[in-house]
Amino acid sequence: MRFKLLAVLLCCSFVVSACTQGVVDTYGGGVGTELSYSTMGQRTAAEDNYVTFICRQSGSAPGICSVDWQGFTLAGMNDIDARCDGYLAWLDNRRRTNGPIQKQIADTATTTATVMAATGATGTAIGIVAAAFGFARNSFDNTQSRLLMEVNHSTVQTIVLSNQERFRKEFALVRVENRPTAIYVLRQYLRLCMPYTIENQINTTITTYQLGGTRALESAEKTPLIDLAFLRRESLKPEKAVYRPPNPPIDSNSKYELISTKANLRSTKLIQSALTAICASPEEVDNPTPHTVVLVKVLQQYRKIRKSVPGKVLDGKMDDGDLAEVAGLPPCSLSTAQNFYEQKAYPSGIMSASNSLIELINGRLAEADRLPAGADEPTIRAGIAKVRADPSLGLELNDPTLSKQLTAELIDKL
Fold first, then answer.
1. In the predicted structure, residue 284 carries a pLDDT above the cut 70
2. Rg of the chain over CA atoms, in angstroms?
3. CB atoms < 10 A from the CB of 258, how many?
4. What is the mean pLDDT of the chain?
5. Please, which residues have CB within 8 angstroms of residue 93's CB and are 6 or more apart in sequence?
6. For residue 200, with 0-12 CB atoms within 10 Å meaning exposed, 13-18 middle and 19 or more buried, which class applies?
7. For 12-29, how does the pLDDT look when each residue is reduced to its tens digit (9 = 90+)?
8. CB 205 within 8 A of CB 217
9. How confident is the model over 321-367, as pLDDT tens digits?
10. Which of 51, 66, 367, 383 could share a disulfide with 361, CB 3.0–4.6 Å?
11. Is 156 exposed, middle or buried (0-12, 13-18, 19+ CB in 10 A)?
12. Does 191 have pLDDT greater than 70?
C-alpha cells in the first residue's frame, strides 16, 4: 500500500513539473522583446474571422461589410453583452454548487469510514482514506477560492452592468473611423466582464472607501480603470455620433401603432426588422397581435434588467431605445428560441444549457415534480410552466403566453 501511494505521489510530481516547465519562459521573460511571435498568423486569421462574424451581425451580406466602423463596434459590443450574460449566469450557477459539492465530499468520507470500520479495516487504512478525502476537500476549496466565488452574485452583476452603461455613454462621445480603433474599443469593453477587472474594482472600492470615505469614491469614479480617454471626441452633439440604422422611406403603417410609439414616423421596414429580431412569427411581422405586444415587453424587460435602464416601462410599445437594441441583429431562430431573451442568452437553444436550467428549475419545484437529469426540451418547458405558476415568485411579466418561456426576470428569480 505504501509503495502504491509513493508511486502516485511521484506521478503527480512529474505532471506538475511538466505543466510548470511550459510556462517558465513566459514567467521569466514576460511578454518578450520581439514584435513578432510564433502564433501571429493564427491570431490574425482569428481576428479576420471575428470581423467577418460581427459584420454579419450588423446586418451586412455574407462577404461584404457594408456598415461603418461606428456601427461595427456597436454590433461587437452587443455580441460581447451576450457572452458576458452567459458568463454571469455560469458564475452564479457555479457559486451555488460549491456548498452541495463540499457536503457530498464530507458525507462520502463519513460513510466510507463507517463501512471500513464495520468490515474490520485497520486503523492505518482508515487513516489513509480519511487523509485522501481531506486532500480532495482541500483541493476543491483551493480551486474554488477566489473573490468572485465569495461575494454576492448581485454585487458582481451590478458592477458589470454599471460599467457597461458607463462605457456605452462614453462611447457615444467618441468617433471610430478604422479597424484598429474598433478592435481596441471592443477589447476594452470585453475587459469589463473579465474576472480580474471585477475583482480589482471590488478591492479598489473597499480600499478607497477605507482611506478617504465617500469623497474618495466620487473622485475615483472620474478615473475608471478601463475607459476611452485617449480617443478623439466628436465635436458635434453626442447623439450624432451614435450609429443609426438605415431608415427607408415612411409609408402607411398605422397597424404598427399597437407595438410602436411614433409608428407613423417610422418606416415599415425598420419596425418589421425589429419584430423578426424579437422572435415574432412571419404572420405577426405583417400584422401584430396581442402576443406580439408580449414579445416586445420581453425585450423591454431585458433592457430594464440587463442594461439597467432606469424607469423602463413595460408597455409593449417599442421606443427609440428598444429599436436601437435590436438594430442590425439577425432574425430570431424560431426553431431554438421563443422570445428575445432566449435568443440573446441561449443562441444555440435552451438545451445548450439544459443541465444548469434543470438545476435552477428543480430548486423551485417540489420533490415529486422535479425534472430528471437529461430531460428533453418539452419536459424542461413543462417545468418552466410549473415554476411560473408559483405566485410567490411575484413576476412582473407573467403573461399566459410566456408560461413555458424563459425571461431575464425569471432567471434572476431562480
1. yes
2. 26
3. 16
4. 77
5. 356, 359, 360
6. middle
7. 554 444 454 444 455 555
8. yes
9. 999 999 989 999 999 999 999 999 999 999 998 999 999 999 999 99
10. 383
11. buried
12. yes
CA distance 43 to 49: 10
Q: How many whole angstroms separate alpha carbon 45 and alpha carbon 42?
A: 5
DSSP classification of residue 369: G
- State the Cα–Cα distance between residues 239 and 328, nearest whole angstrom: 18
Match 403566453 to its residue by C-alpha cell. 401
Q: Report phi then psi at 107, rounded to 5.
A: -65, -40
What length does the chain have? 414
Give SS3 for 318.
strand
- Across the range 48-74, mean pLDDT stands at 80
* 3-class DSSP assignment, residue 127: helix
- Residues 222-273: tens digit of each pLDDT: 566 676 766 655 444 444 445 555 555 545 567 899 999 888 778 888 899 9
Alpha-carbon gap, residue 149 to 408, rounded angstroms: 22
What single letter denotes the amino acid at residue 347?
A: P
Place of cell 415612411: 250
Q: Specify the residue for cell string 459539492.
A: 101
Q: Count of CB atoms within 10 A of residue 112's CB?
A: 16
Q: Count of CB atoms within 10 A of residue 25's CB?
A: 10
**Contact by Cβ (8 Å): 312, 325:** no
Q: What is the pLDDT of residue 29?
A: 59
Residue showing cell 454579419:
56
Identify which of 238, 246, 227, 241 has the alpha carbon closest to the alpha carbon of residue 177.
241
Report CA dihedral (405, 409, 412, 414) to the nearest 10 degrees.
-50
Cell numbers 477587472 correspond to 197
Q: Long-range pairs for 13-18 at CB < 8 Å and ≥24 separation?
A: none
